[in-house]
Amino acid sequence: MATIYDVAALAGVSPATVSRVFNGRTVSDDRAQRVRDAAASLSFTPNRTARTLRRQSSEVIALIIPDIQNPFFTALARGVEDRAQSSGYSVVLCNTDDDPVKEARYLQIAISENMAGVVLVPASDSSDLSIMVGQGRPVVTVDRTTAFDVDHVMIDNRPAGASVTGSLFDAGYTRIACIAGPESVVTAIERAGGWRETVESRGAYDADPYLKIANHRVDGGRAAMAELLDLPDAPDAVVATNNLMGVGALQVLNERGLTPPAFGVGVIGGLPFTTLSPGLITLVHLPTHDLGTTAVSMLVSRIDGATEPARTVVLPGVLTAATTAATRDAD
Amino acid sequence: MATIYDVAALAGVSPATVSRVFNGRTVSDDRAQRVRDAAASLSFTPNRTARTLRRQSSEVIALIIPDIQNPFFTALARGVEDRAQSSGYSVVLCNTDDDPVKEARYLQIAISENMAGVVLVPASDSSDLSIMVGQGRPVVTVDRTTAFDVDHVMIDNRPAGASVTGSLFDAGYTRIACIAGPESVVTAIERAGGWRETVESRGAYDADPYLKIANHRVDGGRAAMAELLDLPDAPDAVVATNNLMGVGALQVLNERGLTPPAFGVGVIGGLPFTTLSPGLITLVHLPTHDLGTTAVSMLVSRIDGATEPARTVVLPGVLTAATTAATRDAD
DNA sequence: CTTGCGCATGAAATCGATTTCTGAGACTCT
DNA sequence: AGAGTCTCAGAAATCGATTTCATGCGCAAG
Prior knowledge:
Oligomer: homodimer
Order of helices and strands of chain A: HHHHEHEHEHEEHEHEHEHEEHEE
Number of domains of chain A: 3
């Protein structure tokens, strides 16, 4: 691989001049041209490792997410990548499996690789960002909060839970259950809170028995749905607080012959790769791509030196009511 | 951030000794202990950028894939990550959107970041690996081949296409179509080849009109399925050569009231997050995770200096015939 | 005509680790 | 006892870029 010294020798200038040509400093036209020609003929590209060592900051940002197989996070990753790309950054994707130990390790690596910054979906509300904050490395958290005072981008969770529940009541369902994520994840608590307040104001039943806590994956949704259907007073509709649990719930309902609209289903998040007819499910579409682009925009402004106090940006979900649910009234 | 010099000063030794302690060279017990204590009290972690610059190789491998939102590739990524992790490597995930320009850029970055190696799912059969090969940087291609003589891990594609087609014939379908990926992707050609040879040996019709070429995404599957259903002699079954096109085909079938087993569906690849009853679809499960772990194993052995000629590892898919298809005979 | 400023440029320091080189001391073997 | 061999540890070179410092030149102002 050609180095800056090779280019300098071929162009008959000093390495400093070569560096200046590529970093927009003042160099006379003829020399600049000689350098560019030499660089081209050697197909020179600067060694990023050396640059990073000297500059103390690379052009890489880390995106740390809990589950690379969850389409919500891959869509987020797309947003992050698109925006990062356009600002000249590469993205390193790290998967924590919701494990705080793995998360801590990746944060450590981000530091020791001199990465420019981190976009983090925290594994839990007790994630430790002190390493980053102590180093003054920019961090933006996404979707879930931590105890640290850093920039944050989130969904308007409580209204999302409330609106999907309200929509199911509107469609005529009377006993609406909820499958929520683990209590260590704020997002899940808030969405379930939206469900609860709607049930308490519009439902004629006690909400408590109809709230099931599950992990955020398909199997969690399956288990919770099965439990709900086995209740003495089984619900006639369910709200899942994330996409994969929604899939799990639908699988169990399908196995028991209870497909929508016979049984109402609301999901917060998109249903990835569904083969169901559109309009059977009430959905709150989440602005995953925007979540990613917004996070990177905030991160880049910090990298560029912004010093204002930590900001929180809240993005709304968009409700799509099931169109076929109304036919239920005809039953 | 504490450096090796800080640790050396605190422990009263030279930086070289500190380095030796962390790299398993011979250091006397008392000094080693002093260094370890000093490192712990300063919470020292070696700067990976400096290490990479000196060693000319980082502990990072790049995984370059065409579509981060396709579950096939995220499952592959899991395999890659798991195996890399256990060998002490981090994984950088790069998304090409099947764009050779983006791919070339990422390969360039891999070089200039001194990455240890690359696991690549080529965007097309004309991907240019000369930069990597010229530098002597290890590359393993996965799933799709290139013109370069490098290690390769692939699926046994032709038998996959043949077995799923055969299974649909066995179930009683008589006119089986195929939705295949673009011709620039060898995988798609081979799988479609398996379908064709089976049709030619067992079917009583001309295969040509029943082969549709689509992109590898859901919308491609939808368009192709719609075209197939509009044929004068419409098929009664279809084989999709990848997962997402299978989803698209199922969506269209569902919209037209043609759900399996009324219409036979075979898919090469898993159906991610499906809410369909299991056993309705004939599937060839692909060993995605193994694909990833195998690729990294091969890559790591190259990084460690293996010099034997390029190897190709072929992993088989596993057929799961639709269990309910047989009931069709009773119609 | 001289002082001074600015600009282009090269020499050299720097980032933080690893690794080679070198020397000091301990030990073995004859 | 002297030569040869090992082991351990520090000094210094090294990786390849960026950036500070120093210098020489040209041009303008006094």
